[in-house]
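Hi team,

Below is the intake form for Class I SAM-dependent methyltransferase from Ferruginibacter yonginensis. Please confirm the fields before the structure is written into the shared record.

FORM ID: S-0412
PROTEIN: Class I SAM-dependent methyltransferase
ORGANISM: Ferruginibacter yonginensis
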Amino acid sequence: MQPFFQYLKYFFYIARNWSISIAIHIIRNEIKGEKKYGINTTGADELKSLAKMGIDITHATIYMPVSYDVIEHFFDKAHIQQCQHFLDIGCGKGRALCVAAAMGATKLSGIELSKALFMEAKANTAITQQQYPNTQINLYHNDAFYFEIAADVDCILMFNPFDEVIMSGVMENIDISLANNPRKMTIIYINPLEKQVLQSFGYKQVYYYKEKIYLEGAIFEK
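The structure came back. Fields below:
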C-alpha cells in the first residue's frame, strides 16, 4: 500500500474509533516518525486473520503502534540507553524496537503472536540493524503467555497488548525470571488499562504521562 493511502486509511480508522483530533495528532507523528526512522509500521490490525486460523484471540487487543511522540518520551524518561536487555511484548511491526535502538539500546528482543506482523517486524528491524550494526535484535513468533523471560531482561514495554487474564500470566513469567535472577525490573506500560495487575505483583508506578486521551502511559519499577 502506498504511504499516502496507508496514512489515510489509518487516519479514518483512528477518527472512527477515537476522535478526529487524536487522528490528526497521530498521523502528523506517523509521517514524521516513519521518515525519521526509515521504517514502515503504520496501520492497525484487528487480528481477524488469526481467528480464521483457529488461534484464540479472545484475550488479545488489536494491533496499533504506539505514537512516535509517546514512545520517544517514555524511552527518554526510562533511560532506555542504559538498559541491559529491552523486551517488547507484543512488538507488532517492530516500531518500538527500532526507536529503542536509535535511542541507544543495544540488546533488544520482541515477541509477536501474529505471523504477518512478525514478518513485517523482521523487515523493519533489518533496516534498523543495518543502521546500527552493533545492536542485537532478536524476534520471536510466540504467545506471550508461554514466553520465558530471559535472565538479563531488565526493561519491558507493553502497549496494552492483552486483557487481565494474559497479563497475569505474563507477570508470573516475569516474576519467575526475577526469582531465578534477582534484578531491578522496569516496565513501560502504554495505555495502562490493566495496571492493577502490575500493582498486585508489587510494582510501583514511578512516572505517569498523558498527552491526550488514549495517549498515556506509566513506568513501573520493582
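SUMMARY LINE: Residues 47-60 have pLDDT under 50 and may be disordered.

Thanks, M.
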